[in-house]
Design brief:
2 copies of one chain form a homodimer.
Chain A lengths: L2 H8 L3 H9 L7 E2 L5 E2 L2 H15 L4 H12 L5 H34 L10 H8 L3
Antiparallel strand pairs in A: 1-2
Helix pairs in contact in A: 1-3, 3-4
The structure holds a DNA duplex (30 and 30 nucleotides).
DNA sequence: CTTGACCTTCCAGTCACTGGAACCTTTATA
DNA sequence: TATAAAGGTTCCAGTGACTGGAAGGTCAAG
């Protein structure tokens, strides 16, 4: 399989695959006579695993850990679950931060007329508000 | 005021102030005889404005727009309100994405025993799941 | 024979800082 | 007075995870 083909099937960009190779997340692909990278089904599975883990918010370094766990037949499932729950906590913190921002902006906009006049409580609050 | 003093009062790092100057968000500060940057109360107000806007999730380029609007006495408050509501929408999209991740991870962890055994539905799903 | 779609490498840019080196100035203390 | 700590200065590099683009090689089709 060429890189474009495997990229398509895994749902990632060819450039991303080369990037993953460059940072050691995946081993260097074998090359054909013409220098093209050559992928096999196992590589596709790995890339799909990576794509899914990334989509769940795991950083590349964490995906590396997950891959190691995946390949380790003597792993403890508690290690995997710990990573998952830690990620949920991290996501919760991010959501909370975003919700706080949203609340603050909504509070500011509530009293803004949003018309052709210059008076604007949003700017007033940014300038000196207790917000 | 030295940079450390104004940084303290505005709630930003001295390095951040120099960075803002370097990217043109604030004008180059006047210098004292010894080469130190010298800030006045107006600069402090500007930096506080910037700090608050950044805390609300506005990018530096957006803060620049807000500053321009703030200084423009012939602005329309609708322009400010539009930026605020656009930012709320952006935050909403981020929250939704994070919540989707969280749901997916929680779904995966639900069936994981999290003990000393290797069997792990989280890895199973990442490997080939319909997740 | 050429066009277009692939592939290759390498460098630079994104965003908003932050760390660190190497150096100078001011202030406080022994 | 010496010196050390705390502050200031500049400049360069790194962060994360790609992405864009240049410059070039390869391959399949018309």
């Amino acid at each position: 399989m060429n890189i474009g083909e495997v990229a398509n099937q895994a749902g990632v960009a060819p450039k991303t695959i080369r990037y993953y190779e460059s940072v050691g997340l995946i081993p260097a692909a074998t090359r054909r006579a013409n220098g093209y990278r050559d992928y096999r089904t196992a590589d596709l599975h790995t890339l799909r695993f990576i794509q899914r883990a990334r989509a769940l918010g795991f950083a590349v370094a964490e995906v590396e850990e997950l891959l190691t766990l995946w390949r380790n037949k003597r792993r403890k499932s508690s290690a995997v679950k710990a990573m998952a729950t830690a990620k949920i906590d991290e996501i919760d913190r991010k959501i909370a931060a975003l919700q706080a921002m949203k609340r603050a902006i909504r509070y500011l906009t509530a009293n803004c007329h949003g018309d052709t006049r210059p008076e604007c409580p949003i700017l007033d609050e940014l300038a000196g508000g207790r917000a």
